[in-house]
């Protein structure tokens, strides 16, 4: 192996500070989740949501008054996307007629003199369905994490597996924390985004871990910390470039994708930042703290795979 | 020799690219507004019907692009939606009674592509507009009905065996009977056990003499299963009656039904129809009146005029209803002794006693079975509520041979298939009430189109940003990566169009956008490796070779883990999450292929086997 002919960035020397920082953010997220909770969207809470479009910009006060008169005094009315589009949200109700609420609200709005009303979207979710979804979403996340843990432990080493899964848990927690602190609505598409964050962060972590493993085998000298620093420096430009391209498309999604996809883009934008950071400072730091060493990685026979790669590519 | 691909690899690549383009192609053609005309109750349309439709359109002076028979339905395509709507009105006016006329969007794929099974991607309701219902079947009612049935059959059985009991009633998910003596109890247990093998009997003599009969888990499961199936059948019939093209009715889990009606905006109407009840009424035939005279308006007092379903002949029925379908607990089709199809009907105990009283003095007289449905007229009252029309026709007229009890049969249902459908409808007619809508999502057509436009814009802008960045950063190799990225998009669309179950949704579009951003990762990994190798002083050919080699296992590991995540999302998730998972998984597979094999092929062609001094990277 040739000498390392570039300047190594001493990532790991800052790992204590970074871990303290991460711990602080995680505690803040947990605290916010406990106090503020998540602003669960209709998918999870149940209830009725109606999106209507008016010809001109709509007067929210007038709409509230109309709804009040018709017995929908719990309606939350807000602009959505533009001033002529209005979103109305209603709490879940008891009784078999709950499914009809959307239609009666629309009828009330049409009767009231507000100009032409265009129904854009009605969603009604029963309270039980929402509860099941919350459970399912949590289950999806947990299953994903466990399967990934098993795969990484099998393919790499348990310290890496623990490191990468901790990084994933860290990213998911911080993303949820962000949504809780800012009070952003957490719906099904945001859940999908959080799961995509898992995918992205994992991608990043695996690339870094892969390089660490390779360097442990290749480099003769240097302690674990030094080798990790070398690996992180080597993968840094790749990490940055991939982050930049992903952020580019997410920005396009955020600004051009419309109001329905805002939550999705927000969660992913934040997730890409956190995921990039965590692959360096959470996954690698934990593997290092758990005492990863050359001996742990050298005896494996995975090296063999390189021999038959020619035919694969 | 380094960096040379064998010929077969290029051929494979070219084949896959061609297939990708071919199957992605139908998406460019878009869809034609069309009308889909089908017969009522599954009646198959023929060439004469096609001519009739054509004639009607010509008479109304409406231009159509093409008209033909597809799957025994008439399909007429129009140039624009305005013409389509006018045509629907004209046809509805002409014979809305006999046909179901549905607005439809038919893929405008050229025939040669359609012959290759190349069709455009299915769009989710959030992109094309429409309504999605999730309905829940109240299983407790189904179980309760079965219990009532057991109680009444226990009564009959005990009466036949001449065993006296003190009380009988529902208990848990079964039945409990109290006897006066232990002897009665043992006799009853023996007799009932023989007749009801699917129940678990248990006797107790602690405080009186009790016999309990409970349904086993298997039996409960069977009841739930059959209730769900019946409900799916009846909902499917109703959905067909609404006249929706490509509706989806399928089960979800053990007690839920998903209904998707693309293009339907009027949810109130859809809900009314799905919730409407088909039922039967049994009435005596008015033998004194003249049905043909009644046709010209002279209907005798106390009677009503109806028509027979099979031959359209008028029948005069007494106004008084002997029995309604609410009392039906079971219905099954079979054949009578002459081989004609018949429907066996079981009534609950109350219905049984009403019926036996009503038929006691009517032996030798004709009784009619009236089938009643509520159908939408397409009109609205002044409050905007849809107007429904009660449609009733006589399905059978039979002479009462003997006093009828809680179990009897009706004939005249027509074909065995019709008898079967009728039995299902009757059973479900009593079960349809406990269906509840637990979720509803309606997306207006304007929002659907807007979602498509916005999604396309986001893809274009994101794609452009990534293209420019890659060229600026990697120059020549960046161009190659961009080529791969473009091909990747085509392949995703191609694969999505090929897989029958794949549906493009809004989160799915977001998944494609995300894939565009992440797909370059594999190339970034490879190119960074090549740069490293060059820095370490290797020659260009060696650098390319080792770059691809050493990046491969990293790319594989990273993508397999993400793929695991996508598979789990698909398995555990519902609706939008599933849509996202599908595009993510497809994107991973195609991007690995294009980024590794695709770019390598181009780079090999450009640099392979030659003396290259410098790489454009």
From TrEMBL, chain A:
Give the domain of life: Bacteria
> GO molecular function of the protein, one example?
protein-transporting ATPase activity
User: What residues form the membrane-spanning segments?
Assistant: 137-154, 161-182, 188-209, 230-255, 261-284
Q: Which UniProt keywords apply?
A: Cell membrane, Membrane, Protein transport, Translocation, Transmembrane, Transmembrane helix, Transport
GO CC aspect terms: plasma membrane
Specify the protein's topology with respect to the membrane: Multi-pass membrane protein
InterPro entries, per the entry:
SecD/SecF_arch_bac, SecD/SecF_bac, SecD/SecF_CS, SecD_SecF_C, SecD_SecF_C_bact, SecF_bac
Give the protein's recorded name.
Protein-export membrane protein SecF
Q: Which organism is it from?
A: Saccharobesus litoralis
Q: Highest lineage ranks of the organism?
A: Bacteria, Pseudomonadati, Pseudomonadota, Gammaproteobacteria, Alteromonadales
Gene (UniProt):
secF
UniProtKB/TrEMBL annotation, chain B:
Per UniProt, the keywords (alphabetical) are: Cell membrane, Membrane, Protein transport, Translocation, Transmembrane, Transmembrane helix, Transport
Q: Which SUPFAM superfamilies match?
A: Multidrug efflux transporter AcrB transmembrane domain
**GO molecular function annotations of the record:** protein-transporting ATPase activity
GO cellular-component terms in the record? plasma membrane
| GO biological process annotation, one example | protein transport by the Sec complex
What's the main place this protein lives?
A: membrane
The record describes its membrane topology as: Multi-pass membrane protein
Question: What Gene3D superfamilies is this protein classified in?
Answer: 3.30.1360.200, 3.30.70.3400, Multidrug efflux transporter AcrB transmembrane domain (1.20.1640.10)
Domain Protein translocase subunit SecDF P1: from-to ranges: 228-287
List the transmembrane segments: 7-25, 454-473, 480-499, 505-527, 548-572, 584-607
**Domain called Protein export membrane protein SecD/SecF C-terminal: residue spans:** 435-596
Subcellular location, record wording: Cell membrane
What are the SecDF P1 head subdomain domain coordinates in residue numbering?
A: 304-433
Domain spans labelled SecD export protein N-terminal TM = 2-103
Which segments of the protein form a coiled coil according to its record?
A: none
NCBIfam families registered for this protein in UniProt? 2A0604s01, secD
Q: What job does this protein perform?
A: Part of the Sec protein translocase complex. Interacts with the SecYEG preprotein conducting channel. SecDF uses the proton motive force (PMF) to complete protein translocation after the ATP-dependent function of SecA.
* UniProt similarity note: Belongs to the SecD/SecF family. SecD subfamily.
Q: How does it assemble?
A: Forms a complex with SecF. Part of the essential Sec protein translocation apparatus which comprises SecA, SecYEG and auxiliary proteins SecDF-YajC and YidC.
Name by which UniProt lists this protein:
Protein translocase subunit SecD
